[in-house]
Amino acid sequence: MITIAIASKHQDDRAAITALLKEQEDFRVISIGSDGYDALKSATTQRPDIIIMDFRMKDTDSLAIAPIIRRESPSTALIVLCSHDEQNTVAKSLKAGISGCLLRQDGFNNLVPSIRSVLYGGWYISKSARDLVLNYFPPPTDVFSAEAFPADMDISPPSLPSFSPTETGIFYGIIHGHTDREIAKNLNINIGSLRNCVSRIKKETGLRNRVQITIYALLAGILHIGNDYRHINN
User: Fold this and answer.
1) What does residue 82 show for φ and ψ, rounded to 5 degrees?
2) pLDDT greater than 80 at residue 176
3) How many domains does the chain fold into?
4) pTM of the model
5) Where are the alpha helices (DSSP H) in the chain?
C-alpha cells in the first residue's frame, strides 16, 4: 500500500486530489492538511511514502521545508503543485530534494503516474515546465560549476562515467516516469541488473540518487529530453 499525505491551502484541490487517489486500490491517503506544518507533522509522525504539497503554503514554501522533511523522513518522496508564475522554481525544487513538480493549471490527470514515478526513485515534471530545468542551470561548458548543484555535493569532471546503452536506457526510462519493472521489460533486462547499473553510477559519481544522476547526465549532454529510450539498442 502506498501511503500519501496532502498539504494544500486550496480546499477544492484537497478534495479533487483525495477523490482521485481513492480510485487507486493501492493508494491510501493518511493525512490531509493545509500548510507546511501539517506536511512536516505527517512526515515526522506517519512517514508517508509520498507528500503532495503546494509550492507556496500559508506558513512556508516547499524550498524551505523540503530539506527538513527529507532529513526527518528520508524515504518520503515529495511532489509540489505550482502555478505558471512559479515554473522558474522547478530546478531549485529538484535541488531541494523534491522529485515531482506539477502545474496546477494542467489539472491532476498526471498525478497518479507522477506518484508512481517518484515512488521508485524517478522524477516527474509537467511537460510545459521541463525546459526550465535546463534553462536554470549553466550552459554545457560550465556543467561542472559548483552553482549547478548543492554545495555539499562532491562532484568533479572526471567523476562522470560513460553510460552503457543499457544505463542510458534506464535513465531515459526514469525521465519518462516509468517504474523499474516497466523499464526492465522494455530493455529486456531483469530488475536486479537495472539496480546494479544505477548503483554503479552512484558509486562512480558520488551522486546520491537517480534524480541527481539524471540531471547530471542531461547537463552533460548524455541524455536529451524528448528521446525515446525504448529505441536504444543494448
Assistant:
1) -125, 165
2) no
3) 2
4) 0.59
5) 11-22, 36-45, 62-72, 90-95, 111-119, 130-136, 165-175, 180-187, 191-205, 210-220
